[in-house]
Fold this protein.
Amino acid sequence: MSTPGLGKDLTGLEYLSAEQIRLILDTAEPFKEVSERPIKKVPALRGKTIVNLFFEASTRTRISFEFAEKRLSADTVNVATSGSSVSKGETLVDTARNLEAMRIDMVVIRHPSSGAAEFLGQRIRSNVINAGDGRHEHPTQALLDLLTLRDRFGRIAGLKVAICGDVLHSRVARSNIWGLLKLGAEVAICGPATLIPREFAELGVRIIPRIEEAIEWADALNVLRLQLERMSSGFIPSLREYNRVFGVTRERLAKAGREVVILHPGPMNRGVEIDSDVADGPASVILPQVTNGVAIRMAVLYLLAGGAPDWRSAPTPADER
Amino acid sequence: MPSVTRLLDAPAMARSLERIAGEVVEKCGGTKGMILVGIQRRGVELAARLALFIGKGGPAVPMGKLDITLYRDDLSAVGPVPRVGETSLPDGLEGRTVVIVDDVLYTGRTVRAALDELADFGRPRRILLCVLVDRGGRELPIQADFVGLTLKTSGDDRVDVAVKELDGQDSVDLVRGGPL
């Protein structure tokens, strides 16, 4: 078996092979079941210390990571920027080195700068997991999207997935594009021209200007959140206008004449990029995405811990019973 | 060159399992409240075979599968790609007799992990251990209640259990002095 592990860090899907992505998805399967047990906890990461280092607001991702860590029996510490020495001007590396001096094993980092996770991973010995860095990547979100699509369709290869909305500001879109392309899906992006970066066309991503066409084409829509906090101004005329032209509405979906599965990474702006009756409708897999998020993060934590650099020095228990 | 000795062929393995099945029923005074739990992977197949013998002429015995990977005490030694299999247990272990089934009993660490995992699912009235081969070499105070075949081995030896469902044949081989 020459299957590669994941290496030390998970910074983005761009740097993983299709085989490694499939390994994570396959490993997540048994972890789904752990969350259904009467005691939702296994001792796999007992004694490991994990720091959740969040330089940006996050509810879902941080809680999801925390559940994943606790269900694997790891010890966790949450560091938020406000109220820590980060607000006193400490650099990222200094913060992390100080944490490492307290003998931690892993860092889960969210940061507003693209490349922050990779930068950190190269400078500390602990495993680093990217929980979103600027506009760059949000690998665990894309992995849970892939797992949810695979659950629903039984496959990824050959699926047509349209990523809709604010692709420009979206690390979720970037990670999804890498993951979907590597696993053989067809990918389109759709949104206002100001929010659709053209460079993705070079990767083989189709650019569909109108939401109606995207719905017509796709098996599944991944509807991105309009990231109002990342936009200075001028990208879109108004929220109402956005909803009128690009909103995913029941009427638009009905015209497809078949089911189009709806994903959304959350948090939703109901009535802006997605209408409530779509978000809560039968084709929506938005809550299964959240459930799968915990399993995916457990799989990633587990695989990275198992691939820790010291495994070589231990005796091989290949035949141990 | 490693030397391979066939310890059990298919008919011998079947006889062995049939005998164990009889012992299990005798010791438990019937099959009431019994659950057979196979340890992934070959223990699952062996548990299914035992269930056929035990359930003969009566109600089917409930079965479960246990993957103990997440309960191992040596995650960092498993290698870069730990594979986790399925765990599924029938609801309600309380008051039941759980018979753990595995192919080979060696250090006892797998069974230790299985006991820990079972405890997280409930509190059976009694847990018994059934193995096809006991090869000695225990590192923990754990013994089997039912054994198909007992042998002495050294740390360099390997005991290979093959089952038709996964390996195309039923056999137990002792591999001596070979490369890993």
